[in-house]
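Run log, item B.
One chain of 287 residues. Sequence copied directly from the ordering sheet:
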Amino acid sequence: MCVSWIDGLKGSVRVAFQGEIGAYSESAVYEFFGPHVYSVPCKRFSDVFRCVESGETEFGVVPVENSLEGSVTQVYDLFLEHDVKVCGEVILKIVHCLIANPGVDINSIKVVYSHPQALGQCRSFLERLGCELISTYDTAGSVKMIKEHRMLNAAAIASERCAEIYGMSVLAKGIADSPNNYTRFFILAKFDAPPTGNDKTSIIFSTKHVPGALWRALGEFASREINLTKIESRPTRRRPWEYNFYLDFEGHRTEPRCMEALEGLKANALFVKILGSYPKAQEKYEE
């Protein structure tokens, strides 16, 4: 369990995640909340946001970036469409396995199914395998599919835990391009977290399309010595070549210098949306 405010929750809370039982997102649910949470699988990322927004679940968990493949852009775009907050983050080590039906030999595999991010993270292994690659909506869902349809010339990429859940065989383990494969997940709620002294804040903003606009916006943080941990641009979809910026910085939105920086940003931006402040995830990276 990652942060102390979770200890104050009464009973087993409901947490939505995208994918089938056994998905990495479900593992992130248990990593953050502990074993007694009630996980709610959803077909799409947008369904996770709707579950939290409507109150169907108290929380949601969504992946936002991977250390090998970068950001999950669809999730970032959904923050513009839904009124939810980020109240936590968790970083999960990803260990991909090639999974098939029991008795299937790796030399008989002709096609591999998985989520596009998982396929991308295992690019080198899959090139050597020389199989057809087919993207699906979920890693665990791919394992479930090849099991239910008894696909003996197919495999899926998912976790070892997923293979155990569905009674499948692991043909190869640790097949990602790098052993340092981590995914960062956001915890969604209708509120963010109280300050802990070791926090981060996530925001979205856009600037005027004029010279120096972004420089002035970011200067509000630099002048107050606030460290930026991530910045990424995404098309606004309103006009070509105009962008929203997704920014993470160290500090809680209620700290005086952070409040000043955010007020200064609003003076230089077309809009600012504060997604929330939350405790930094514990990082356990391998050298």
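Observations after the first pass:
- The chain has three domains: 11-92+181-189, 97-173, 199-278.
- DSSP finds nine helices and 15 strands in the chain.
Flagged for discussion on Thursday.
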